[in-house]
Amino acid sequence: MQARNFSILTYGCQMNKYDSEQIAGILSKQSYSKTDDLSEADLILLNTCTVREKADHKVLSKLGRLRELKEKNPNLIIGVCGCIPQVQGEAFLDRSRVVDFVFGTQNIHQLSEMISEVKKGKRVARIEKEPSEALDFSGDALLRESGYQAWVSIMTGCDNFCTYCIVPYTRGRERSREPDEIINEIKILAGKGYVEVTLLGQNVNSYGSDLSSPVHFPDLLERINEISGIERIRFVTSHPKDLSDGLIEVMKDAKKVCEYLHLPLQSGADKVLGRMNRGYTRELYLEKVEKLKSAVPGISLTTDVIVGFPGESEEDFNETEKVMREVGFHFSFIFKYSPRPGTSAMSFTDTVAEAAIAERFNRLDALQKEMTLRHNEALVGKSVEVLVEGKSKTNPEMLMGRTRTNKIIIFPGSENSKGALLKVEITQAGLYSLYGRALTTKESNHAG
Ligand code: SF4
């Protein structure tokens, strides 16, 4: 069979990255090989996100640039998948003539069929609105990016309907995988040398409640903690309202569960949280943070915050700033609110002026930078465990790895250490990464 190459450009969240690994798995079974060089690709897929307006713009401008490649190679197939087609439907085909096919988050399993139709000269749209039973979350179908860190989908969809979010409409309601299936997948990964797993779901804390024999997320974590070979367990995303005392207990006791949690705050003002339909108050959020900090010393907490949600007054914003200071997040993803079509917040008319949104964004951004740097500086002189990911992208002569608290560490060393857990002494702190020197080598780690 003729050799063919594919490239996938992935935008947005971990769920999209996971879908891209699934798509890559399907294509590799069709004798396609992966390439990062778009000019060598016979098939280019853009796996899109609608969470921010910018993501939409990014995709359209990328398609504009791909036009040139298509002019040089008329056989080049270009597809767009993920959340943008899921929301905009087949109308997306009209937005760019270079696009040969579009498909939604529930149509991944039909990829080969769609490619065949495109090869017959058709422009194809497959957008299934209802969650598809045919989707394979088993992990068997994935072509994973890394040989030692794996995303493992434990559930899909969301039941929460935050008023600014499109996910429940693009991914459907919550559906959990059977725990035994997840455990088997992770055992197989461990057997192949994977040391870190990140459990994925829109709201992992409510995992298992929809199963015929309901299971709680902390029980699943305890079972994964027993799997030999797996050294680190992470999970995203946690919803504050569903973060149970049981989960905090497991984070304290299960040694492989990392001292890291991403806990989206979104706003520190009860009025705004109510309008966002988040289901918790500022007080409840802070109470959970206190419990986490006392159960898991040194935990690194990160968050998402939306500034300028409709109706957010200066006082409301001040509340958010106060909560951020009080928690002392290690990192925050701060978003300027922009209405997304299809969400209920789209109809809110009490919008905040753009200038005020920009000013609030800058204030929070400066605060977060100050806090991040302070946390990072406190690590100088300490020795930390780092999982080596490979060459640093910013300093290619150095290695890059992550601590259990999800900090990026850059240090000199050999690429043979890829996938190893090394002890590294931190010598210098920057805002986005820290620098250090390895105290152990892959060999010395394995010798003991
Ligand atoms: S919890 Fe809210 S923000 Fe998160 S995916 Fe569900 S609806 Fe969206």
Task: Describe this entry's structure for a reader.
The protein is of the alpha/beta class and 448 residues long. It has 3 domains: 4-126, Rossmann fold; 149-377, tm_1862 like domain (pyruvate-formate lyase- activating enzyme, Alpha-Beta Horseshoe); 383-447, Beta Barrel (OB fold (Dihydrolipoamide Acetyltransferase, E2P)). 34% of the residues lie in helices and 21% in strands. The chain contains 13 helices and 19 strands. The chain has helices at 14-29, 53-72, 83-88, 111-119, 167-171, 179-191, 217-225, 245-253, 270-276, 282-295, 314-327, 354-377, 442-447, and strands at 4-10, 32-34, 43-48, 77-82, 101-103, 124-126, 149-153, 155-156, 175-176, 196-200, 232-236, 260-262, 300-307, 331-336, 383-391, 399-403, 408-411, 421-429, 434-438. It has a 6-stranded parallel β-sheet with strand order 2-1-3-4-5-6, sandwiched between helices. α1 (14-29) links the parallel β1 (4-10) and β2 (32-34). α8 packs parallel to α10 and α11 (314-327) packs parallel to α12 (354-377). The longest helix has 24 residues, at 354-377. The chain starts with a strand and ends with a helix. The mean pLDDT is 92.
